[in-house]
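Handoff note, outgoing to incoming analyst
You'll be picking up this chain. Sequence as last confirmed:
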Amino acid sequence: MVARPDDLTSWHDDWSGLRVLVLGLGVTGFAVADTLAELGCRVHVAAHRPDEDRARILPVIGVELIELTAPDAVPPAFDALALDLVIVSPGFLPDHPHVAWARERDLPLWGDIELAWRVRDKVAPPADWVLITGTNGKTTTTQLTATMLQQDGRRVAPCGNIGIPVLDAVRDPGGFDVLVVEISSFQLHWLPTAGPGAPHPAASVCLNLAEDHYDWHGSAEAYAAAKAKVYENTRIAAVFNRTDPATIRMVENAEVQEGCRAIGFGADTPGMSDIGVVDDLLVDRAFLDDRRTSALELAELADVAAAGLATPHGLANTLAACALARALDVAPVSIRDALRRFHVDHHRTELIAISADIAWVDDSKATNPHAAASALSAYRSVVWIVGGLLKGVDLAPLVETHRDRLRAAVIIGTDRAAVRAAFERHAPLIPLFEVDHDDTGEVMPRAVRLAAGVAESGDTVLLAPAAASMDQFVDYADRGRRFSQAVREHLEGEAHDDGPPTAGSRGS
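Most recent structure output, in case you need it:
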C-alpha cells in the first residue's frame, strides 16, 4: 500500500510508488524530480519549453516528461495520472491554472523546501538549518554567514535560492553540519508553518522588507506574510533589523520554539541582545553572559570595507550574518577572519573603474527600489542609470528621496515612461537622457556614452536600475556584464586621447 504524503517525514520512510507531478523543470524542479526518483516515486514533470539537457536526463533517471504546448494549458493527461502529490517550482504563481487544477482535486501541494525538510535525515545526523530572506541582501548574507561557519570549522553548504537547490545539499553523501538557506518569498509562500513539512531552523532572519514582487503575491500584505514565515518554529535566534519596523513586527508575531531569542542588528550602538557598532568596531551584546555591561569585539569596520561591504546595506548584511553565526556559537575570531577573506560577488556595488576622478559602479543586482536606495545612499554625486522591468513598482518615492544627490539620470528599459514620469513629478530639474534602443547589444554602450557626457569630476556613474532585467537582458548578471564591458570599451577609447584610466575592482 502506498503511503499518504503527509505520513512521509523521513528519507528512510517508504516513498515507493507515490505518484507525483512536478511543475517546472528549472534547477529546482529537476532537483525535486531527481530526489523523488531516488526515493522510488513514480514521477512526472510538466514543463513548457523545457531545458534540453535536463529533458534528456529525465528518462535516464526514470522520470516522464509531459511537455506542455502552452505554459498555462492543463493537459488531459494530468487527470490520467491518478496523482498523490503535486510539487510546485518557486516561480509558479499561486493562481496558476496547474495549481488551481491541483487544488480543485484536493491534492497536497508542496514546494521544494518542504520536501527537503522531510528528507533532511538522509545523512545522519541531519544538518542544522539557518534561513535567510529579505527583499535585498539575501545572497551576500547567505554567503557571508556560510563563510563564518566554515572559518569556525563547520561543514557548511550555502544553498536554496542562491543557486544550489536545498535538495542537492541534503543528498550530498558527505553530509553537512549546517545548511545556510537563502529562501525567496516564492518558496516561503508554499512552505507550511506547522506539521511535518514545516522547518525548525536553528536561526532565521528577514533582513528587510520593501516593495517588490507585488505582481506575484498580489498585495503588499501577502508579500509580507510570506516573508514572515521565515521565523516560524525557530529554535535559537530570530534575528531582525532594528531599523525596519516590518521585521520587528514579524518577530513579535512569530510562533517560535520555547527559548528562542529575538536578536536585533543595526549600524548603531547595540542594546542588550543586539549586534551593532561602537566606534569603529562590530560588537556583540547578545551572546555573552555579561551583556548588561560588556560587549564582544567581532571585527573592525576596516574589515567590512576591505570585503566590499562598506555601503549601508553591506554593513547591515554583515551585522545580520554576525548575529546568525553567533547564534550557532561561532567564535568572534572566526567572524573576523572570515570577513578578512570574504569579497562580495560581482554586480553588487562593484567598482569597475575610475577615470578622470569619475567612478563607474555596477550594482545591477539592485533590482528593486530598496536595493537602489542603499546604493544611491553610498555616493555624494551620482549619474544614475535606472530602469528596466518595474514589476508594478512605483519609483516616485525613490526619486524624491535621492534627487539632491543626482547629477543626471540615464533611463533604460521598456518601462521608461513610468520612470520619466517619476522624475517629472519629483525632480523636474534633473537632466534626463533616454536609451530608446531595444537591441540588447546597444543599450549599455549608449547609456555609458550618455552618462560620460554629463558626469563631472567627483561623480559616480551608478548602474542601480531599481528594476528587473528580463525586458532587455538575460538576467541582472548579464546586464551588469554588459555595463562593465561598455565602460571599459568607452574608457579604452578615451585613453587614446587622454592617457590610460585608473582601473579598480571590488568583488570576486
